[in-house]
């Protein structure tokens, strides 16, 4: 199975193969602002399509990951881990996918703000 999506203007597209069978709604300081709903896979299972420099790349805190948003329309499409030898996951934001995709996912709440544990 694979999940596809794109930002609003279409400049940045993704395809994720073998994603997690659940999605994550994280309450950390960044995700709660973005309203992103993430699914994960290994980096090698994700294809991002777009011109070089099509995204704004944002890092914060201990810089373990970089969040990418389209430079033109502002939509947040994915994040990448910055230490792939320690954590080889990548995530895409299924808010960028057809509504059916999110409809069919079990969405789990993750306490990224505090305990770093699932709340369900
Ligand atoms: Zn865009």
> Major sheet: size, sense and barrel closure?
5 strands, antiparallel
Contiguous runs where pLDDT drops below 50 for at least 5 residues = none
The CATH top-level class label: Mainly Beta
Q: What is the mean pLDDT?
A: 95
Residues in helices, as a percent range: under 10%
CATH architecture: Beta Complex
- Which ligands, by name, code or SMILES, are bound? zinc ion
Strand content: 35-45%
Distance between the termini: 25 Å
Individual helix count: 2
Widest sheet: strand ordering: 4-9-8-7-6
Rg (CA only): 13 Å
Describe the protein.
The strands form three sheets. The chain has a five-stranded antiparallel β-sheet, with no helix packed on it. The radius of gyration is 13 Å and the shape is globular. The chain has one domain (2-110): Metal Binding Protein, Guanine Nucleotide Exchange Factor, Chain A (Beta Complex). The longest helix is centred in the C-terminal third of the chain and has 5 residues, at 99-103. It is mainly β and 120 residues long. The model has no long low-confidence stretch (mean pLDDT 95). The chain is built from two helices and ten strands.
């Amino acid at each position: 199975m694979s999940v596809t999506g794109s930002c609003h203007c279409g400049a940045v597209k993704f395809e994720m193969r073998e994603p997690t069978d659940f999605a994550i709604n994280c309450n950390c300081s960044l995700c709660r602002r973005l309203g992103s709903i993430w699914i994960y896979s290994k980096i090698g299972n994700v294809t991002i399509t777009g011109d070089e420099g099509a995204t704004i790349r944002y890092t914060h805190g201990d810089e373990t990951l970089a969040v990418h948003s389209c430079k033109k329309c502002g939509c947040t499409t994915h994040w990448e881990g910055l230490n792939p030898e320690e954590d080889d996951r990548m995530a895409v934001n299924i808010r960028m996918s057809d509504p059916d995709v999110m409809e069919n996912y079990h969405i789990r709440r993750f306490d990224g703000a505090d305990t770093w544990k699932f709340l369900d």
